Amino acid sequence: MEAACLVAAAIGGAVLLYRLNPSRVPFIICPLRALTGLRCPACGLTRAAHALLHLDIAGMLRYNLLSPLIFAGLAMGFVRYLFRRLRGMGVEQSIGLGLKGGLMIAGILVLFGIVRNVVGI
């Protein structure tokens, strides 16, 4: 039941995001950008997801260059979580990255955050 609710929520969110353009209707305001003017590694992901739902790959990359990797990682984590829940397994370590993988991803995101504000990507 929990997995079905999660899938329904994901589909509902995707339909809402498809219908409402976040460039015109602000969904989320980034606190870092609002306070400092700097773009965090996640800035633009809502607009990138909207572009992806409309099959606008160039637009998706324009909003956030890492969005394909982030969306692929989220999709794989979501599917893995669902399979574990459907099999009755725990979800404590359902992502399965380990400490090294988590630190590597955190490092990539920090580096991307720095580069996108210095270079302007």
Provide structural commentary:
- This protein has 121 residues and is mostly helical.
- Helix content is 67%, strand content 0%.
- It has helices at residues 2-19, 31-36, 45-53, 57-63, 67-86, 98-118.
- The longest helix has 21 residues, at 98-118.
- It is globular, with a radius of gyration of 16 Å.
- It starts with a helix and ends with a helix.
- 12% of the residues are buried.
- The mean pLDDT is 86.
Shape: globular
Helix content: 55-70%
- What amount of the residues lies in strands? under 5%
Structure classification = mainly alpha
Write down the overall mean pLDDT: 86
* Spatial gap, N to C terminus: 42 Å
Largest sheet: none
Question: Number of DSSP helices?
Answer: 6
Helix and strand element order: HHHHHH
Q: How is the quaternary structure best described?
A: single chain
Radius of gyration: 16 Å
Indicate the low-confidence ranges by residue numbers.
none
Q: Say how many strands there are.
A: 0
Structural features:
mainly alpha, 6 helices, globular, 67% helix, 121 residues
Q: Could you give the topology of this structure?
A:
Blueprint: H1 2-19, H2 31-36, H3 45-53, H4 57-63, H5 67-86, H6 98-118
Brief write-up:
The chain has 121 residues and is mainly α. Helices cover 67% and strands 0% of the residues.
